[in-house]
Amino acid sequence: MQKVFHSYEQIHERLNQFFEEDLNDGLKLFRSELTEDLRKELSELRTELFKIKKDDPNRYELILKRLNYLVRVISNKIPQKVTQKWTKWVIEKTEELPEQFFVKQTEDRFIGQEEDSFLLKAKKSIKKTVFSLSKLIKGKDYRWEQRIPFRAVIQYSLLADSNTYRDSVTFEYSRIAKALMVLLQEIKEEIQEELNEETNNDISEEQKNDASVNPYRINIISEIETYITEALKLISDFQDASYKENPTLIESHANIVENLFKAGTIEFPNKKLRPKKLNSQIESSAKQTEKALTRWEDYLDSQIADFRIQLEMGDFGAELEDGENKLLEETHNFFRDICYIPTENGIRILKEIISHLEEQKSEKKSLREIESMRNKLQTEFMEQSLYIMQNEDAQRDLTSGIQRILSDIELSLNNFSEELLLAETRSFNLPIPEVTTDDFKWRKIASRFIKSEAISLIRPEQQNFEAFIKEQLTDIEEAAQIVDVNLQAAVTTEDYEGEETPLEIAVSGLKRAIIALEKSIKDIREKQNEYEFLIKEKLKDSFQRLAVLMLQRRYDEFELRDKALIAKETALGWKERLIRWYASFEDKLEVLWRYSKGKFRELYHPIAYFLGFKSQKETSVKARQDLTEFLITNKSVTNKLPFIYQRLFRRAFVIDKRFYIDGNDNITHLEKGYQQWVNKVPWTMAVVGQKGSGKSILLHFFKEHETIKDDVVHINIERTTYRPKELLKTISKSLGFAETDNVDELIQKIERSKKQRVVIFEGLQNCYLRNVNGFEAIRQFWVLLSQTSTKLFWVVTCSSNAWYFFIKMFDADQFFSQVLRTDSLSNRDIQDGIMLRHKATGYDLVFEPSAETTKTRAYRKLLGNEEEIQEYLEKEYFNKLSEVSKGNFSIAMIFWVNSIKEVTDSAIVFNPIEVADIDMLEIPSRDILFALASLIRHDTLTIEEMALSTHQPVSESKLILGRLASKGLIIKTSNGYTINHLVYRQIVQLLNSRNILH
To answer: Which pLDDT band holds residue 170 (cuts at 50, 70, 90)?
Structure first.
């Protein structure tokens, strides 16, 4: 086939066609893949935002909700495998090009250029000489041909050149960051303008007084549609732009022209373009580009983190605004009910009496009226007004409302990201941006900041409300005394010869009392205004300052206190250095010591046996008294804690689902069991666990689940109910039937009922008494359960030890389709559950070492490094906590709270866990052991029920229970006696070791 020769101009035209058509088409597809997800999400978001009316009161919250969703989507859709996509489309487009062109070289190709190297000039000179000789031999029209591998040259220039590859791709990728900058930096700048009051004090008085400016809102979010529109325009323009938008591709056009001109010559030999070598160079370029892209990914991550902070601040601002309104309302209620009402009530009564007395004409009648009014004041004024201000329960309820709102604000801080990777510095540079990041404990620092700057100052206990109310009470008492003294003086002035009449004396006294009360109202108003001003200013200022510091990346101002504290803690004294050195040296002696001790023990035991040495452990009276006091008074410990701690660690607190640890996924099992029953499969479920293991809270979340469509009947047997009639009446009444004590009749009523119900039956362990006549109720229950499982979805709870007894006595597990355990949480579950609640309070943790711990080498080697010491003590503490709780979260929580030593402004200090030694309090006799076993199996027993279950006289049971209660091992409740949670596990372990419980 005859070769077709082309001119350089023709080749240039084909190259231009490739750039204008093929390259542009491929580039648009690549850009679409790169930015389409972001464009689509922004477009959908803008459409949704336009649907929200401008006057919608919930507009701000709705925008925040949608922006939060956008951030999550962007975080999950940062483009991946970009280099693979770039290489793929360039290869695909160049494969459509001609493989090569042939060109006849002109003589000017052999002329050396100034920029050529000496060697290249020499080669060109030789080539020119050879060409001249060839031309003499073959004729003047002779030309050397040049084979230009057109396709390979373009691939080489666009892909194999590492700088071109990297700079082209990073430019395209950087457009995502540009789009986010429209959303991020513009918002950031306007927020800073709004919040500059804290740092630059340049906000005018007019702006301060502008009611339309909401201090808890990032106002620019209200106009977010504008910025989304700008970002969309930027992306759309970028997707539609030609290759000329990318400066590197423009430059590559000129490079390709030069390479095509030189290809196939000594300046650019074709061996450089061999497929194997070319592919190797392309792979190398892609790897270098991937390294650059990781820097851009860090840049995008830092942008998203900044965006997330703004949105989290926006969410928190909305919570704070709502909290301020509620606080102001509670404050109004407090001062109204405790202060204003009794004081104004007194003024009203006094004014009514003055008006009534001034209407009297007769002096004798006036005296009678004054006496009557004096008695009225005793009842209506003094008793009623003073009663309200002396009612501590009412005061406590109102201040608890304020504390509850403050704790809700603290809990809302838990919605902040726990830790963020934030940019300390960030600069948009091509091809590689400059960004330095640092891990920032956002939730912890923000929580501490808001607490120290606002919440701790607003707490009622910080405002001395109690002292203030006592002052107002004194004012009312003084006013009442003024009234009483003057009225008494008025009625005893028969022999008085002064100018004033008794009526005038009485009225003047009443008016002076009114003046005193009005002064008291003025003090109340000032106190209320002062407190309300504190609420408004501190919450607003702390929010604004936090926003400014975060948006301006002034992280050092947050961490300055911590760094100073760490520097102080890490400064070792000479004693600590000596102890640390000795602990390390002691390690080296350990091996020798163990060897010596082993040899000595071999000789010691025979000698000790013959000499009669015997170790003896005696318990001091003081230690026994201390332990008893600890067990009896532990229930009051939580009252000394901050309100939010009381709330989160109170066993009766109905927690949010986010604080619930479901180690065995029991909620899911309950839901699946319910679906089985809905599908007409008879299905019954038992929830088994020791007392306080979370059975009730599990059922609480199960009841509230959206899949439960049937009526839920909750039956809780809180006291021992071993008589069948009483149990059946309780069940029939709870189901909405007329009370019946016949099981067959109850079954018939259930079967005739058109309703299907979910029955949550708590306290199966209370449906029997371990006595010859104490099992009839539980037998009746088995009949009822097995006969009604198609109409009723039974979920039954039972304590562990009673369950094991039921299995032995009745094969109880055969009555249930599935048995769930709640007291098998892992050590990690226990720690996670405790820390979830603790972190929500915003306090730091400080663990104190025990005396034994301070003597260990492992501890002494860490002296001087407070952070490592705390990690060591925390690990030791939670190991001990897991050991004593053994999967029971309620017990773990009790030990956690009772370990608290003190509470500071920013931290809670914990003592090592103390585990009660039962043998220290009680040498367990046979009767004591069986009494404890009965309480474990039944949960709660009265004296009479204890007597029946242990086959003892009532007097003996009364003596045993009183003895155990006096030592704190058991607690008396309204339903009878029950085991103290602090020793529950130890008692179970003791009874298991004595082979009493199995």
So the answer is: very high
